[in-house]
Amino acid sequence: MSFRFITISLITFPFISTTVFAENTDLDSIVVTASRLGNVDSLPASISIITAEDIKQSPANSLPELLSEYAGVSTNSFYSHGSRATVGLRSFGETATQNTLILLDGRRLNDIDLSPVNYAAIAIDNIERIEITRGSGGVLYGDGATTGTINIITKNPRDSKNYALISQILGSFDHRETNAFFSYTNDIFSLTGNINSLKDDGYRDNNQFRQDTGQFDLRVPIANTAELYIKAGAFEQDSELPGERVVSPGTNIDQVSSNRTGTTNPEDWADEYTEFATVGFSGNLNQDDSFVVDAGYRRKRQRAMFFDYDGFGFDAYSETALQTLSLTPRLTLNRVFGEHAINWIIGADLYLHQYDSNRSNFKQNINQPVHVLAADQKSFALYSQTTIALSPNTDLTAGIRGQRTRLKARDSFDATASGSAFGSEAADFNESDRKTSYELGLKHKFTHALSAYGRLGRSTRFGTIDELFELNSVFQQTFSQLKPQVSDDIEIGLDYKGSGFEASIALFHQSIENEIHFDALTFLNVNLDDTQHDGVELAVAFDINSNLSMKANYTYLKAEFTDGNNKANDLPLTPNNTANITLIASLPADIKGAVNFNYVDATLLANDLGNNFAKKIPSYKTVDLKLSKQIANIGLAIQVNNLFNEQYFNYGVGSTFTPGRFNAYPLPERTAYLTASYQFD
Fold first, then answer.
1. Residue-wise pLDDT tens digits, 221-248
2. What are the chain's domains?
3. Using alpha carbons only, what angle is made at residue 281 by residues 278 and 282, rounded to the nearest 5 degrees?
4. Tally of CA atoms within 13 A in the half-sphere of 296 that contains its CB
């Protein structure tokens, strides 16, 4: 792709519009800047908007559980509190986090390492809406959007009345959570703030979880045409890690059945401290065009200790710091040529990452690391997306992004600290990759309620630092030569949005070259042979009567190899069938009720690329229930999750040496939570 055309556009359009901007000083405030989607109704994609009211009604106990209520969303969880869950669209199993772009107010939460997104640090009470965009987003948001984007948008103080809310949640496993939120606005500034403290002893032994979070959002209007905004926050988290439960038929061990809540790792732990800030300026160039310029900073520090309980002495300690700086300006332009309205988004994304990781093999040598890995990654992209109204009922969307990523890394190895003859210092790494993403789609409205769309596109994913730097089968550190992953997509869909009834269907196909995956036999991350993902997503929502409504969805997914030794084999951790049904009811005495049924099909264990393991992760069904009532300024709610006590897990790894043996991470049986809140107007 040529960057020259987009660069000229970025430079010239502000000057073209400056005169108009100077002449118009009585303009309304600009629209929300946390999303790049624009007019959702004209986009050729499968999009779900989860509103604050939807979130309030849902019986979900965590953000991953809430997201799993929607078509195409799959989750894999290790523990009950949701902090280390993976959430993905159209299922990529273990690498779901690296293939679905998770955004908070339009900014990436996916990091350049393999650490999961910390959903527990996002206070649900502070969410205004969530945009789920399936299969699309690579042009607007960049690499890692192989299956789409999930943009979590927090409450904007400009759009809220002045109030404060405090809530307390008590529940199973000695769960204690306090949340305080306030919103204030006047003619000079608008401000929201949120503080959350959570403590949970966990479903299993050595599974305690502690977290404190806080953030604020300040908006200062400037002459009714622009605003300055500052968002900042931090969270601190301490987790105990119970590890796996082992099933080994050959030795009559079945800890999943006999001791689900036990631990094999009674002392393992991990902690994290993250701070972030965004400073931005957004404004109107004229009555039709606007711009956003913002800069972001995020610093994450993680520590973890894994003890060796088998007596070999290979304890593992790591301390990692990741600092990210970003600059993301963009223009939104609206023009009319004849009878054709044109919306044009032009932008640039610059991300600078600094990564430092100290790793020790033995607990007595925590202060004397074996490996010190230092890495710098720079990513720069230019993008442009245009939506053209070909007719009053037909919109054409076309977009292109060029992205270049350069990674420099150095490994220092101390053989004395390792106390072992094994190991080596990896050679320095200095590589750059350049990839182009694009999208072309058409959406046609047959009637006010019925529309159809078709789209094709290409998205990319670059390997993370943890995938590039690894321990090979002879215990030597090395940098792998992973190629960027490329996905070519085709999708068609049909939507109906009538009064009291909505329905949609989407059919999609993804052909993926160089899919990145961990090989359990060589202990290396590799580029797989060609794969493809095909699927159908169905969703419906309607009012049964004035007091009862229903929404339901079903997803069929087939992910398999199309080349190589594993040709026609299914990919692991990708359920063929998932379904979800939610009923929302208005009950007597002004009580609101919600019940959710969730079904997930059996899946292959995470490392079963050959499809030859005797065991699969069993299918499971869960039912969640919530009752709530508002009494003046007091809110009360009770919810029960996994009502019928299903014993299940959705992540497991098989042994490549012992037939039938596998490790699993059991998830909670029935749990209950009571919420009380008070709103100060």
1. 988 789 999 999 999 999 999 999 999 9
2. 4-235+246-680 (2.40.170.20)
3. 120
4. 24
